[in-house]
Design goal:
Order of helices and strands: HEHEEEHEHEHEEHHEHEHEEHHHH
CATH architecture of the largest domain: 3-Layer(aba) Sandwich
Largest sheet: 7 strands, parallel
Number of strands: 12
Helix content: 25-40%
Radius of gyration: 21 Å
Shape: globular
Distance between the termini: 15 Å
Domain Glycosyl transferase family: 221-308
CATH superfamily of the largest domain: Glycogen Phosphorylase B
Protein name: Glycosyl transferase family 1 domain-containing protein
GO molecular function: glycosyltransferase activity
Number of helices: 13
Number of domains: 2
InterPro entries: Glyco_trans_1
Strand order of the largest sheet: 3-2-1-4-5-6-7
Length: 340
């Protein structure tokens, strides 16, 4: 039976000079790719009901290892001393990883970059929030507030998204199209604003990307994604309840002019008329898009300011530094499942 003493001994006997061994289940490839830049080893469990890493979204880094096997126990590496478990989905991943944490006597960290479902039962949300974790990392205060977390709690940390600004750069525009990127757009209308997109599509030539049957296809690889950002005349985001779409940040990093709704925390990132435009209805969005198309000088300056916003607030260097501090702090804690 796992014990607190076993967890403590595991921490004491750890070789401090080696990278950490971190166990996960795949969730967001773009985020995981950035997280791998901490230099630690990440092992991704396979589960038949959950999607494996899609290399078309991001290539699999050398320090990320995909574990395979038909049974949960079969795809664990027993020749690896796991230091930490990272859960990225309270609903689907937690029940699986809780059992693994008990088995391995590992601390468990919760990574939360999504807002609560606007239609969710508040008691259900509260129950999810009080699951056993050693520490929870939120991508913003807005996200933590949506979950009812106390940012003054020592077990709550805020780490903004990290964007590879060296890769996501080089906007030229000129394709004559309005770019937007959303997976399952129609099914996520209540949070991603598919209805607004369909109205815009009646007025402009669109280039919708993302896996949405009958509407758009996913990019084949990250290079095709970059090319789409670079060539787009405008990038639009129509989300109505989304913390911070990574695609919006990537477009801004490239220097592409953006028009976005002001939902959730987006007005904290985009200042209307400075580094992008804010528009919450079809008429305003049409006007802002046309303003960009009609004024190349303003567009270029706006794109440069958008890029600087991402460099200053979402650069990969600060992202990696913040994560290193959190990871090295949490691994010395006894497993939450043994102390609860």
């Amino acid at each position: 039976m796992p014990s607190i003493s076993a967890s403590i001994l595991q921490s004491i006997n750890r070789d401090c000079d080696r990278p950490l061994n971190i166990l996960c289940i795949n969730h967001k490839e773009a985020y995981q790719n950035m997280l791998s830049r901490t230099g630690h080893n990440f092992y991704f469990m396979y589960h038949p009901k959950l999607s494996p890493w899609n290399a078309a979204i991001r290539p699999i880094p050398n320090n990320c290892h995909l574990l395979t096997g038909d049974k949960q126990a079969a795809n664990l590496r027993y020749d690896v001393d796991f230091d930490l478990i990272v859960c990225q989905d309270k609903d689907t991943q937690y029940p699986i990883l809780l059992q693994v944490a008990k088995q391995l006597c590992c601390p468990m960290l919760n990574l939360e970059y999504s807002l609560t479902d606007p239609n969710a039962n508040p008691y259900y949300v509260e129950n999810l929030m009080y699951q056993n974790y050693n520490l929870t990392v939120f991508s913003s205060e807005f996200v933590s507030n949506s979950w009812g977390a106390d940012i003054e709690d020592e077990d709550v940390k805020i780490i903004p998204h990290g964007i590879d600004t060296d890769f996501f750069t080089g906007w030229t525009g000129g394709d004559g199209k309005i770019l937007t990127i959303v997976n399952n757009y129609q099914q996520r209308n209540n949070t991603m604003g598919f209805d607004l997109f369909t109205q815009i599509a009646k007025c402009f030539t669109m280039n919708p990307l993302g896996h949405t049957q009958g509407v758009s296809r996913a990019t084949k690889n990250v290079d095709e994604l970059l090319s789409a950002y670079q060539k787009a005349d405008v990038y639009i985001n129509t989300s109505t309840w989304h913390a911070c779409p990574m695609t919006l940040l990537e477009a801004m990093s490239v220097g592409c002019p953006v028009v976005t709704t002001g939902s959730a925390m987006l007005t904290e990132i985009v200042e209307d008329g400075v580094n992008g435009f804010i528009a919450d209805d079809i008429d305003t969005m049409k006007t802002k898009i046309q303003n960009i198309l009609d004024d190349p000088d303003m567009t270029k300056e706006m794109g440069q300011k958008a890029r600087q916003t991402i460099i200053d607030g979402f650069g990969s260097g600060q992202f990696i530094k913040n994560w290193q501090e959190v990871l090295l702090n949490v691994i010395d804690q006894p497993s939450c499942v043994l102390t609860s």
